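Consider the tokenized backbone below.
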């Protein structure tokens, strides 16, 4: 059909990404992913950095995953050095969705500790997906160093990232349970409890951890 041909025309898709209407941008991103074209990659990444609508950003990421990782991954790695926080965050998010472990060296300590919570959270998620076998303990230590950081959403994200690493988190959590900072101890205890009982819920685990810390405990059994 003529309409379908127009919708997937490369120039129409590229122009649509600049449209003021979010629904038009969404359709343009959908078209770019439905019919991948190397000419789309730079524009999709550029748009990720400035797109205000979450659901459009999600479609932009999907469109990028439909293109060859040999083209997208190097460009996304370059984007990790961008000044704009959304550019770094979206690049990390997209790298986690692509899952190409060649991007692992680009997940630096600076990104894992980025002062912007959204960038840091994206870095934690990407790191857990991309970490090579055998490097989980080092990543666990780097993530555990952020325990106690931020508000509920940030702390919950960090707990999920740590739990996804599995057994290698044990030494780092045990050490954090004796940290001088009560927020760190609470977060470590809550994370350990969530690891043992994923159905407990973050709020419940945190409240229990607070009680343990107030009573002078560490949450360590035995």
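A designed sequence for it:
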């Amino acid at each position: 059909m003529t309409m379908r041909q127009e919708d997937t025309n490369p120039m129409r898709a590229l122009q649509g990404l600049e449209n003021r209407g979010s629904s038009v941008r969404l359709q343009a991103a959908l078209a770019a992913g439905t019919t991948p074209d190397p000419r789309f990659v730079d524009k999709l990444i550029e748009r990720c950095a400035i797109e205000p609508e979450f659901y459009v950003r999600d479609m932009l990421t999907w469109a990028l995953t439909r293109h060859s990782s040999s083209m997208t991954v190097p460009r996304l790695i370059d984007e990790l050095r961008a000044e704009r926080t959304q550019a770094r965050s979206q690049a990390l998010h997209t790298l986690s969705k692509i899952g190409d472990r060649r991007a692992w060296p680009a997940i630096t300590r600076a990104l894992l500790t980025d002062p912007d919570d959204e960038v840091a959270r994206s870095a934690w998620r990407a790191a857990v997906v991309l970490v090579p076998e055998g490097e989980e303990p080092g990543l666990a230590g780097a993530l555990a160093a952020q325990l106690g950081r931020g508000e509920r959403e940030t702390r919950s994200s960090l707990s999920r990232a740590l739990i996804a690493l599995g057994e290698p988190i044990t030494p780092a959590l045990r050490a954090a349970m004796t940290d001088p900072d009560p927020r760190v101890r609470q977060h470590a205890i809550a994370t350990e409890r969530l690891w043992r009982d994923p159905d407990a819920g973050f709020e419940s685990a945190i409240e229990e951890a607070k009680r343990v810390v107030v009573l002078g405990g560490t949450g360590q059994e035995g």
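Residues 182-196 form the longest helix (15 residues).
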